[in-house]
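Appendix C reproduces, verbatim, an entry submitted by the partner laboratory led by Prof. M.T., so that reviewers can inspect both the input and the predicted structure.
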Amino acid sequence: MVWIVIILVLLFFLIIAALLWAFKIAFMRSDIRLISFESGPLAKYKDVFAKSIEYLDSLKSERVYTKSFDNLKLAASYYNNNSDTTILLFHGYRSDGRFDFACAVKFYIELGLNVLVVDQRANGESEGRLITFGIKERRDVITWTDFINQKYAPRNIFLSGVSMGATTVMMAANLQLPQNVKGIIADCGFTAAPDIIKKVALQAFKINASPILPVLNVMCKLFGNFSLYETTTVKALKESDIPIFFIHGKKDGFVPCEMTVESHKAAAAEKYICLVDDADHGISFLVDTDNIQKQITEFVNAHRS
C-alpha cells in the first residue's frame, strides 16, 4: 500500500513537472529564433535576405517606445518616408521584425509608406515574460496605433503581420481601433491559440494536447492573467468592418493554409485572398514576390484616402 502511494505521489509530481515544462516551452520568453535562413525552406533565399538586411541598415530609423495597457515598455523602429500613410508590422512567434520583414520594408518604402516595425511583447527590446499567442498582443496593436496617431498623425494606417503577427492584427480587428486604420494584411496567421498549440504538439512531440489544454489555460490565468480561449480570428473578423487581405502558402508546414481559409470565410468586411502554390510558412512574399507586391499595392491604394 505504501509503495502504491509513493508511486502515485511521484506520478503526480511528474505530471506537474511535465505541465510546467510545456508551459515554459510554449509561453515563456526566449531569445532563440525558431526559423533561420541558414537551413530549411528559407535557405534558398539567403542572398536575398542578406541584401535586404543591408538595405534596412542603410535606412535612417528612429527607435521609439511606448507603454502597454499593462504597463510594459514596448519598442519599435520607425522609418519616416514623409508619407500620409503608415504601415505597422507585427512579427511572428519567437521572432523579430527585422528578421520577418527585412525583405518587405524596401517594398513598403518604395510604395510610399512610413513603416513601423514592432518588437512584440516578450520579444526584442519590448518587455514581458510571456508570449500570449495574440491574446494580449492584440491590445498592443491599439497602443501602437494610438502612439502613431499622437506622435506623427498620419492620414491612413495599415496593419500587417506574419504568422503570430497576422493572428495579432486579425484578433485586434474588432477592438476600438482608430478610424484611420484602413486595412489589414494577414500573412499565414493561425485561427486561435488552442488550434496552433494542438497542431504543433502533435507534429513536433507526437502529443495529443487536447486533454492538457484546460490545465495550461489555468496556468495562463494564474501566471499571465489571460485565457487561451479569450478570442479567435474567426470571432474578431466576424465583428470587424476593416478591409483585409489574406496571404498564405499552400505548402505551409507550420500553420495550415486551411486556417487562413477559415478566417477568410468568417470575415464580414471587404476581403481578398492570395494563396501561393509552392510557399512554405512565412515565405509567400519571397516565392511569389511580383504577384503579392502587385496585390498589396492595389489593396493599399484602393483603401488609403
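The radius of gyration is 20 Å. Additional entries are available on request from the coordinating office.
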